[in-house]
Amino acid sequence: MPINQPSNQIKLTNVSLVRLKKAKKRFEIACYKNKVLEWRSGIETDLDNVLQINSVFLNVSKGQTAPSADLAKAFGEKTPVNDIILEILRKGELQVGEKERQAQLERVHNEVIGIVASKLVDPKTKRVYTTGMIEKALDMLSSQGSQAQQDKPATTENATGTSTAGEEGESKPKSVHHAWTGVVATKSAKSQALDAMKALIASQPIPVARARMRLRVTCPTSILKHAAKRHDATHVDGEEKTHGTVKDHILSYIEQVETQDVVGTEWEVTGFVEPGAFKGLGDFIGSETKGQGRVEVLDMAVTHED
């Protein structure tokens, strides 16, 4: 006696699912692990390397493909299957297994710690910390943040609407707090590393500072003695007040001068600058020299290693 099997059933294993709900139906496509995010970020462009099978399912785990009538109702009668798959791939929710989710979180965590460790130094010795020390410092901030939330005092409002705490009538100004609650898999490692550095610098669980940038600034000697018109210059009687020479102003951005010399008609200075001052220096050079001067980055983060 022949065994009848549904002709629309396909068995697939070890897949990542992308799921999209539309017209009260749930549609799924079966993809190779780790390929969906690569496709969405533009790293992978070949759909054959992303899709396990070029079909749309109602339920991948049961091997139940989506009937043509359901696809037509949800996506339009004349919409090709490939266009439907692309829409699900773009807009659908990626279903990730627990093991894969943990592995992805661990990858992002290690990347964040690595970035932070390469950008922060001991402010006195300028030496980098090990990734283990950075990880412990961030763990301290996480636990402190949780404890602070629990111990947060109740606030009341006075007659003027000002929030107060502690002694009666004493107003507590709001302060900017860079909280750190740990790494998540849904944000980029770079943005989370930036948040982690801000939190570490603000709270100082261990002494840290941003590693300085090493720059070379070149400027025509004919401009050096000109009066510098700063971006925040004040106006007196309709005239712009200047603040020293162009050379003085350039040197004010440089925390430590390494070398300076005159080569032909150009003055060249190499030195160390705090990352936060880099944009201001670049803007100043651009406006004051009208494109004749330039700023070159020699090292994004100068550190000393044991």
From TrEMBL:
GO terms for biological process: cytosolic ribosome assembly. One of its GO terms (cellular component) is cytoplasm. It is found in: Cytoplasm; Nucleus. Residues 213-300 form the Ribosome maturation protein SDO1/SBDS C-terminal domain. Keywords: Cytoplasm, Nucleus, Ribosome biogenesis. Gene3D superfamilies: 3.30.70.240, Ribosome maturation protein SBDS, N-terminal domain (3.30.1250.10), SBDS protein C-terminal domain, subdomain 1 (1.10.10.900). Residues 14-102 form the Ribosome maturation protein SDO1/SBDS N-terminal domain. Residues 141-165 have a biased composition (Polar residues). InterPro entries: Ribosome_mat_SBDS_N_sf (IPR036786), Sdo1/SBDS (IPR002140), Sdo1/SBDS-like (IPR039100), SDO1/SBDS_C (IPR046928), SDO1/SBDS_central (IPR018978), Sdo1/SBDS_central_sf (IPR037188), SDO1/SBDS_N (IPR019783). Pfam families: SBDS_C, SBDS_domain_II, SBDS_N. Residues 110-211 form the Ribosome maturation protein SDO1/SBDS central domain. Residues 141-177 are annotated as: Disordered. Associates with the 60S ribosomal subunit. Belongs to the SDO1/SBDS family. This is Ribosome maturation protein SDO1. It comes from Cudoniella acicularis.
